[in-house]
Amino acid sequence: MKAHFEQVRPLPENSFKVFLHEVDEFDAPWHYHPEFELTLILNSQGVRYVGNNIENFGEGDLVLLGPNLPHCWKNNYNDHKVARAIVIQWQEQFLGAGWVANPEFNHIRRLLQLASQGTRFKQPVSNQIQEMMLRLLDLSPFKKLMQLLEILDLLAEAEEKQLLCEQGFIYPINYEDNQRINLVYNYVRKHYDKKITLNTIASLVHMNEESFSRFFSRIIHKPFFTFLNEYRVNMACKLLIETDMQVAQISYACGYESLPFFYRQFTKFSHMPPLAYRKKFHQTSVRPTD
Hints:
This protein folds into two domains: 4-163, Sandwich (Jelly Rolls), CATH 2.60.120; 192-285, Orthogonal Bundle (Arc Repressor Mutant, subunit A), CATH 1.10.10. The protein is 43% helix and 18% strand. The strands form three sheets. Strands 2-9-4-7-10-11 form a six-stranded antiparallel β-sheet, covered by helices on one side. It has a three-stranded antiparallel β-sheet with strand order 6-5-8, covered by helices on one side. Residues 286-290 have low confidence and may be disordered. By secondary structure, the protein is α+β, with helices and mostly antiparallel strands. It is globular and about 60 Å long.
């Protein structure tokens, strides 16, 4: 799908932009911009797309994105919470040309280099900087800048982080491609629980099956049905965590007509069978008592 270009304008008194994003649901299309972006989800859950990576997100999801890396957050249809996030966006040279080349910023330079693949920080880091990010909304311009540098310093030192896209992922910016990819994403989001054929999805973007397969693999760096199974497994993970549904029920609810095939796909993407995934989650969620 083709990402939409987004123009970011900081406030006149600041060299970067920070804002509280509060909406009924995250419905922005897959988009990109030349600025870095740090996003912390305060409230809501759904599926996050960064480059060719697909993952579930929830409260506390903290992601750093590099320039022109396509992304979007999409809520689950049954999520009735108000969607809230705090977002910071800044240009690569917002402190002047070559600022990260100074020795004081060596660790931050490495952090920003990794952002080209998208970087997710684990919950302890997210918890640590949430108040720092919220304070940015009310600080004076100079203190706001100092706080941003403190946040970047903390993130650069954090060991709990995960790269989202494979190394070498490059997105070819093209409006028509972006439109097509957004159509595909939205169709899968609405119909993942039903049978989806290659002919149906190719017709959606006015292509034949062979042309669509080449197109999708070129843009997303993975075949369409790999993408679809990855999406369905993410939805299955959510149901395993949040419900008491049987594995067979979850399989059919996520669009799988064959239970053995669901087991194979789930194990492929999650590296463990469904019941082991549910057991592991509940074990790690139990807090020890005093």
